[in-house]
Specification:
homotetramer; 122 residues; mainly alpha; three-stranded antiparallel beta sheet; 5 helices; 3 strands; globular; DNA-binding
Chain lengths: 122, 122, 122, 122
DNA sequence: GTGGTCTAGACCACG
DNA sequence: GTGGTCTAGACCACG
């Protein structure tokens, strides 16, 4: 299993699952159309309750990152919407604000973003 | 007062205060050494519980964004640590992952980050 | 084949079949007495399990929308019962409630219903 | 309590809660800004689990019908979006199709919709 | 006191 | 076999 959990974090477990799958898709570790583990198997492997895993999957589905086909399992589904939601923008604003206050110049921030974006190319 | 609240948000109020002050500092709206309102006055103006405002200030102090002087005044304090915490990096990874899946190319992401960073120059 | 499926929908496939046939009848695309494809052929064309198609046909038959003749053929059958079931009424109530809360005036709702009813005349 | 449940229905309990609250808002029984019962009290009164009630509230919140304020309880919140979602439209199409096949003329359908819309005026 | 999260365990509809 | 629903009961963060 490719998921790791921080049980002491204040980020809820279902959100940790969601976040890691999103990053997995972006990094190419999870490819378009690829089958995700079933709710049950992921729950068994990770020791996390099925309800919690199910909640993560439902959130991912609602956000359009995955598709749960009644006939089979759950697959990765990438809809390139080219839309940057207000939430994403606000999160980015906060993120870059913190980096800026830490003393990073615009060039350093862009270089960091470039590197993070590029992490997918492996 | 420059703070705006979304009482229906799932972001806790103390975190909304913290985030807006951080973005205020990065954008230059709050300058180094500038005096922040007292816990009491901020609570009164915003209708938010004193305990909540206090919690936000404590968090900001702990993170090094503000300072409490001997007389009880609270001032903005920028220590350019040049350190990018693992939390910031993880948040950036998630952020850029979402943008990437939305279909933004590396150039578009960097251009967006450039713009967001630049919003401070006003 | 005139049916389209959303495999990611939370509406079960057999219900999607049923709904589309009902709307097909109302719109005139499926005329009284018209022959429907056999369970087998519909299943083959659509890639949907025979059991699922069969379930949809059984439901339609039970509701009086289709008829199975002696030779096994399935035909559209319209009995104008002039009866509005409690389920239909409840669904309409919910429907109109949502439109109303969205801000549509009575005139706008009636105009929309008029238009939707009229879609059959093509 | 104003909610009634059909425990034998294939409509999930959380959806029955959601639907009745939506109809309650449209009918004026629940006014803008009015306080809804807490998750716990509704669960106690109805004999339904808190998780189930909570799920209904979260759905209503996501749809913009209610607002859960961290400082207090849950209130009715009407945003007149004037937008008819594709889901609403599709549901209306199905609904009107069934009425039409039952033999109702356009006038009869519109008269019924008029009556249903008007049920709020009491 | 409030809603949000989580578990263990059960049952069910769909396919 | 799959995801979806539900319960009883617990704990926690927020305010």
């Amino acid at each position: 299993m490719f998921l790791k959990f921080d049980f002491g974090s204040d980020v809820p477990l279902y959100m940790q699952i969601r976040n890691q799958i999103v990053m997995g898709i972006a990094s190419g570790k999870l490819a378009e159309g690829e089958q995700l583990p079933t709710v049950r198997s992921l729950a068994d492997e990770s020791g996390i309750n099925t309800m919690t895993v199910s909640k993560a999957y439902q959130l991912l589905k609602q956000e359009g990152y995955i598709n749960t086909d009644r006939r089979g399992g759950t697959t990765v589904c990438i809809k390139e919407k080219k839309v940057v939601s207000e939430d994403m923008l606000e999160a980015l604003r906060l993120n870059i604000s913190e980096l800026r206050i830490a003393g990073l110049s615009k060039e350093e921030v862009l270089s960091l973003c470039d590197k993070v974006y590029g992490e997918a190319e492996k």
